[in-house]
Amino acid sequence: MTASAAQALPARHSAASGRKDRLTVIKLGGNAMVDGELEASFADDVVRMHRAGLQPVVVHGGGPQISAELERHGLTATFRGGLRVTTPRAMGVVRMVLAGRVQRELVGLINRHGPLAVGMTGEDADTVTAVRHLPVIEGRPVDIGRVGEISAVDTTLLRTLLADGRIPVVSPIARSADDDGIYNVNADTAAAALASALGAGELLLLTDVQGLYADWPDSHEVIERLTATELEALLPELSHGMTPKMAACLHAVRHGVDRARVLDGRVRHAALAGLRPDERSGTTVVPDAKPSPIDRMAPHMASRNSTCAYGPQGSSDERTDP
Ligand SMILES: Nc1ncnc2c1ncn2[C@@H]1O[C@H](COP(=O)(O)OP(=O)(O)O)[C@@H](O)[C@H]1O
Ligand SMILES: CC(=O)N[C@@H](CCC(=O)OP(=O)(O)O)C(=O)O
């Protein structure tokens, strides 16, 4: 990390600015955790944000790592609408990999810089509660096992940790409101839910592509910027991991987050660079423009936001790994 990258943090992210501007939720996807050096540079970025007066909250994924571990257990990884079909047995593997391995690695990397990171899952202090998620695929609700739809977020523990100068590192597992069990939650979905519940200014999603490609997989032309309404129109056409990821961006900007960005986590220090308002890499999602005074005088002419029910969006794609 260069000193100039740290200095490049925008002025509105100074410690003196309002709390919303300081709170940043950063999600590191499992696909972006391809080598130790990249993970270390991510940890370095998070610590630099913290030292610059921001309040970073890290949410991590681990999809490929879970799939590899399932395979070692002789289990096949299957996805519907970008979400893992999670049997009760697979749920044990999911929790072990996310909370026992991936989260521990990130906490260790951040804490090389000092006693900052505290690992937790959504189960802790009932931070994330979910009910069974039944995605609608080809017009019908489908049972994909222990996959949760977030029904409540309690930010008390997160705020306590932030007030104590810590960096929470959250695994996307929720307490179940239906029974005594737990639910697997897509990490992008969890990050967006935490960002909106905390009233974060920014949501950064680090993945293994340069952003949302307009014509994937045929072209790598990145869509630079989308309003909430533009993204909503695109969502039904998306597939695989991009469905929950872009649905998460939409939820965030429709629920108070100023900006949600999908960035290439394979690039070193992508998180820090992603905070710069003039940074043009990746895909940036912004809320719809507020109606102008003229629109307010003629409401029938104003463009309207449709309501956004939260939760990972089901789509008709199906994928089996490897
Ligand atoms: N329109 C698209 N633009 C970019 N990537 C896409 C698109 N549609 C599907 N993908 C796939 O989504 C993947 C990212 O989602 P995912 O695998 O869940 O990543 P992560 O682990 O970072 O959450 C990409 O690697 C790519 O294969
Ligand atoms: C329900 C569901 O699909 N959960 C995800 C949780 C991890 C995740 O989201 O990891 P990435 O961000 O690396 O994809 C899974 O089991 O893979």
Automatic annotation (TrEMBL):
It comes from the Bacteria. GO terms for biological process: L-arginine biosynthetic process via ornithine. Pathway: Amino-acid biosynthesis; L-arginine biosynthesis; N(2)-acetyl-L-ornithine from L-glutamate: step 2/4. GO terms for cellular component: cytoplasm. Pfam families: AA_kinase (PF00696). The keyword Kinase applies. It is an enzyme of class 2 (transferase). Transmembrane segments: none annotated. Substrate binds at residues 62-63, 84, 184. GO terms for molecular function: acetylglutamate kinase activity; ATP binding. Its EC number is 2.7.2.8. Residues 276-322 are annotated as: Disordered. Coiled coil: none annotated. Signal peptide: none annotated. Residues 23-263 form the Aspartate/glutamate/uridylate kinase domain. InterPro entries: AceGlu_kinase-like_sf, AcgluKinase_fam, ArgB, Asp/Glu/Uridylate_kinase, Glu/AcGlu_kinase. Gene3D superfamilies: Acetylglutamate kinase-like. It catalyses: N-acetyl-L-glutamate + ATP = N-acetyl-L-glutamyl 5-phosphate + ADP. Its main location: cytoplasm. The record marks 27, 245 as: Transition state stabilizer. Keywords: Amino-acid biosynthesis, Arginine biosynthesis, ATP-binding, Cytoplasm, Kinase, Nucleotide-binding, Transferase. It is found in: Cytoplasm. PANTHER family: N-ACETYLGLUTAMATE SYNTHASE, N-ACETYLGLUTAMATE SYNTHASE, MITOCHONDRIAL. Belongs to the acetylglutamate kinase family. ArgB subfamily. This is Acetylglutamate kinase. It comes from Streptomyces himastatinicus ATCC 53653.
